[in-house]
Amino acid sequence: MMPFKGFWGNLKSPIIGLSPMDGVTDAPYRHMICKYSKPSLVMTEFCNVEGLARGAVSMLKEFLYSEMERPIVAQIYGVELDSFYKVALMCCYLDFDGIDINMGCPANKVARRGSGAGMIKMPDHARKVIQTVKRAAQDWADGIDLEEAGIRTKIITALQKIRTNEPKRRLLPVSVKTRIGYDEIVTEKWISTLAEEQPANITLHGRTFRQMYLGEANWDEIAKAAKICRQAGITLLGNGDVRSMEDAKTKIKTYGVDGVLVGRSTMGNPWFFGKHEPTQEERFQVAIEHSRYFEEKHMDHAFFAMRKHLSWYCRGFDGARETRVKLMQSNSSDEVEAILLQK
Ligand SMILES: Cc1cc2nc3c(=O)[nH]c(=O)nc-3n(C[C@H](O)[C@H](O)[C@H](O)COP(=O)(O)O)c2cc1C
Questions:
Q1: Residue 266 contacts by C-beta under 8 Å, 6 or more apart in sequence?
Q2: Helix axes 304-313, 320-327, angle to 10 degrees
Q3: Closest protein CA for atom 14 of ligand 1
């Protein structure tokens, strides 16, 4: 049996996509990336299923997106099966292109409860999570009603407010993003377990939970996973320390993966996925544009969430440090413009 692939089956090779980063890859950032260079796919920041299923509708901000970001995958994490089921239905209702389950987050408050990388220590439960999300995707395609599925009216009303399209009854592919182990490397055993549940795609970060973000990502382990996935008809994306498009292409060839997801190297660089090398002047213009878009679309967010992006746009020129200090105190796009145009 081959997994249901959905959009994963239509991506052009090699796949070079944007890795989800909580607090970074929000809708304005993804908008800038998709405008200035186009990754093969993007993912939302991860969203906690228990919080959202219980009615924390403010968490739906993680699921805002615009059409130009497609293909876009909603990423979710948590422990409870019932909450996974309900939030997966919400992702279908919002017409994402896929649903990704986070089984890799190393934050203690996440992994200690058994979610994120904690799933690596609970393989039986991890299998049930994949089965549950796939069942939700199938039930949605078969016509289940959100109220009938036990989703609270307050959440349905909030979903209706943020959706941009008429909900479509299409089957969404389910994927997993994970690490090579918890305390120690268990790549082959863990990836074989996941592969039995036939996700459409697995993204593998070449570090264990214990490593957090330290040391180098282990691409030899990623190559072992790629072999297992190829036999199972599952695409495998490698992840960890990809520094440029050239580096991405070299790693794809060397380690036999279908593609990669890139995270930190894209910070402050929405041109990452293209060929254009921007001037500092262009970087400033785009920093201002990003600030304006952030304000326009995210009025309810405090502007300080924008400041880290601004500091990333300002590197490698004389006076960069002083400019960053000023930007880190800015409170509006007008202030950003005044600081950068003075330069
Ligand atoms: C600030 C930050 C937030 C992250 N948030 C998420 C997340 O929400 N979901 C996820 O699967 N991975 C998350 N990650 C992990 C990245 O997606 C990626 O796996 C990791 O950074 C390694 O790739 P890179 O070396 O290209 O950055 C996060 C990483 C960083 C640095």
A1: 18, 33, 272, 273
A2: 170
A3: 21
The span from the CA of 20 to the CA of 75, in Å, is 8
Is any atom of ligand 1 closer than 6 Å to the C-beta of 5? no
- The atom of ligand 1 lying closest to the CA of 217 is 25
Q: 250: CA distance to ligand 1 center in Å?
A: 21
Q: Is 104 in the pocket of ligand 1 (CB under 6 A)?
A: yes
Question: Ligand 1: distance of its center to the CA of 76 in Å?
Answer: 13
* Rounded-to-integer distance, Cα 226 and Cα 231, Å: 9
- pTM assigned to the model: 0.97
Name the residue at shortest CA distance from atom 30 of ligand 1: 21
pLDDT digits (tens, 9 = 90+) for 63-79: 999 999 999 999 999 99
The SS3 of residue 61 is: helix
In this structure, what token pair is assigned to residue 59? 């968490």
User: Closest Cα to atom 29, ligand 1: which residue?
Assistant: 21
What is the spatial distance between Cα 25 and Cα 307, in angstroms, rounded to a whole number? 14
- The secondary element (H helix, E strand) that includes residue 100 is strand 98-103
Instruction: State residue 234's pLDDT score.
Output: 98
pLDDT at residue 108 greater than cutoff 90: no
Answer whether 324 contacts ligand 1 (Cβ < 6 A): no
Q: Give the tens place of pLDDT for each residue, 244-277.
A: 999 999 999 999 999 999 999 999 999 999 999 9
Indicate the top mutation candidate among 16, 18, 22, 76 to test ligand 1's pocket, ranked by most ligand atoms within 8 A of CB.
22
Question: Distance of CA 161 to CAs 63, 93, 257, 265, 267, Å?
Answer: 12, 12, 39, 34, 30
Residue 299 is predicted with a pLDDT of 58
